[in-house]
Amino acid sequence: MQKPSARSLSRPRPVAVAVATPEPARPGATERTVGDDHPITLLQANSLPTLVQRELERMILAGDLAAGEQLREIEVAAMLGVSRGPVREAFRALEESGLVRLEKNRGVYVRQISVAEADEIYEIRAILDEFVGRRLAETITPAQVRELRQIVTQLEAAAANNDIDAYLAANVSFHDRLVALAGNAKLLIVYRRLVNELHLFRRKTLAQGGTLPASTREHREILKLIADRQSAAAGRALHEHVMASRSRMHKTWTVQDEGPELPGSAARRRRAAK
Amino acid sequence: MQKPSARSLSRPRPVAVAVATPEPARPGATERTVGDDHPITLLQANSLPTLVQRELERMILAGDLAAGEQLREIEVAAMLGVSRGPVREAFRALEESGLVRLEKNRGVYVRQISVAEADEIYEIRAILDEFVGRRLAETITPAQVRELRQIVTQLEAAAANNDIDAYLAANVSFHDRLVALAGNAKLLIVYRRLVNELHLFRRKTLAQGGTLPASTREHREILKLIADRQSAAAGRALHEHVMASRSRMHKTWTVQDEGPELPGSAARRRRAAK
DNA sequence: TTATTGCAGATTGTTGACAATTTACATTTG
DNA sequence: CAAATGTAAATTGTCAACAATCTGCAATAA
User: Fold this and answer.
1) Which of A127, A269, A273 has its CB closest to that of B127?
2) How far in angstroms lies nucleotide D2's C1' from the CA of residue B8?
3) C-beta atoms surrounding B241 within 10 Å
């Protein structure tokens, strides 16, 4: 049996949830809470391990930490001004999300994605994106079309300027937004994880030019099919687009002679070089 | 520049990788390593946090720890005979894999899956399973068909005996094996994560009878289509099967009046009841 | 009575110290 | 000289103590 006092004791804790329509601020004094970006809320929601995890994730995805590089607990702790405990917890979380690899008593390394693994991820992405295209073509609103069109415009501008970084950002943004608008929150989580892992791989391969025009055209075409509510065609186009990206990746990869490194060899070489 | 001694120093460490064809044991004395289940190898590969994580995962999926239940660091540490550090690391990993929820300064709770979330997961599973069906129908071997047929037989036996636990086990085994045979290792990882999260939900809903015959029939039909190499039909059948499971879940859920509990309320009530 | 405030116990967050393991290098041995 | 062996430094694994926060209840006041 539940004591009546128990429920009333649990204070209203501000929770960060992704909602399509933000609640309007109510003027009632007792109901008011601070915003999600208020220092107090941030302090309540984020512990040191979470912060460390997020910072490392950012650095890995930004390329500040190269794939294969070793992360030393002490160094990371000193860099972020915390002790080793939170760093270790962050490592555990990052391992589960596929960004680092833990080897007992040997260290943690930024994960390396092999071509075979990247292939598998592209294959999964193709399936998921196909579903997203079909679903979105059935549910999309004019406002959403405008938003996506804007991203495609940025994409084209970046391609015209040969600005690889901007192109990559807009590209990720476009697909992420597509999945988000499909309205399946769990799918978005799964999708982002896959994209993150692919980032570990893409960084070195996407620096090449020549394929941007084709890729850009495909994005414009996909958006058009979705806006025209051509469900099946939009799904097919997205599927093809992802698989084409995969082929482009393959092409640039086989050009390079650089094979996948053995675990830890990069760090070992780096240390020996000093 | 790489020192020649560096590479030779890295000893051959036994790594557990899922390979389709296991390497034959070589008689060369210098090349011999101990098996993956040897105590030394186990000690090298498993740290305390990993062990704690695995044990908690087992307990959660087995239902020993109910959804919504609070996990106290000290209790878990005492139960497994370790200190709080490894337990905290295990919690972080379990959070990332979606089995527990961490609230800063308040505790960690076995996650509760809402009907809406379960819906989303079923939807993703339907997509992935459809792909698995199509792919498998193109690549399956007679030996694999025999293996799957055996699982379906177990499934039918469990259904005939109304043995819910055995049915659930065979059901999971069938689908897991299907995905595994599809030959995309990353997909298997993604898929298992989703199935695990669904477990948090299914435990209470699947106790009902009446739907077993239909589900059993569908499994047999799916296997037949795959064995007959009817790619598209197998994919469709698997998609429909998952969505039918979703409907069955819905049906049994709406019968129950029990709504989803608020975070921590179960633990609070349990403590108040003592 | 009912809402507010203060307080003690329980629980989590963080840190620093110590133990175990690995790694790189020097030494020895054939 | 090459291979094996011993050793010290660096790094990770684990633990226990302390700090910060939360929870539930009692005391207080309107």
Assistant:
1) A127
2) 14
3) 23
In this structure, what token pair is assigned to residue B162? 């109304």
What DSSP element (H or E) covers A110?
strand A107-110
Query: How remote is the C-alpha of B32 from its chain's centroid?
Result: 33
Q: What DSSP state is assigned to residue A161?
A: T
Rounded Cα gap, residues A7 and B258, in angstroms:
17
Q: pLDDT tens, A137-152? A: 999 999 999 999 999 9
C-alpha closest to that of A136 among A96, A174, A102, A103: A174
Give the full edge-to-edge strand order of the sheet including A107-110: A70-71, A107-110, A100-103
Name, in order, each residue with C-beta under 8 angstroms of B164's C-beta and a sequence gap of 6 or more. Answer: B158, B206, B207
Q: Is the pLDDT of residue A29 over 70?
A: no
| Angle, CA A76 vertex, CA A74 and CA A80 arms, to 5° | 115
pLDDT in tens, A51-71: 999 999 999 998 899 889 999
Classify B108 as helix, strand or coil: strand
**Chain C nucleotides near the protein (CB, 7 A):** 11-17, 20-25
| Model confidence, pTM | 0.82
Can you give the pLDDT at residue B249? 84
DSSP-assigned letters across all residues of A114-152: -HHHHHHHHHHHHHHHHHHHHHHHHH--HHHHHHHHHHH
Asked if B124's CB is within 8 angstroms of A186's CB, the reply is yes
Strand (E) or helix (H) holding B74: helix B73-80
Q: Which of A33, A43, A106, A99 is nearest to A73 (CA)?
A: A106
Separation CA B98–CA B103 (nearest Å) = 14
| Distance separating alpha carbons of residues B224 and B218, to the nearest angstrom | 10
- Mean pLDDT in order along chain B per 10 residues (274 residues): 33 36 36 56 76 93 90 92 93 94 92 93 98 97 96 93 88 96 97 94 62 88 96 97 90 54 35 32
A248/A214 Cα distance (integer angstroms): 10
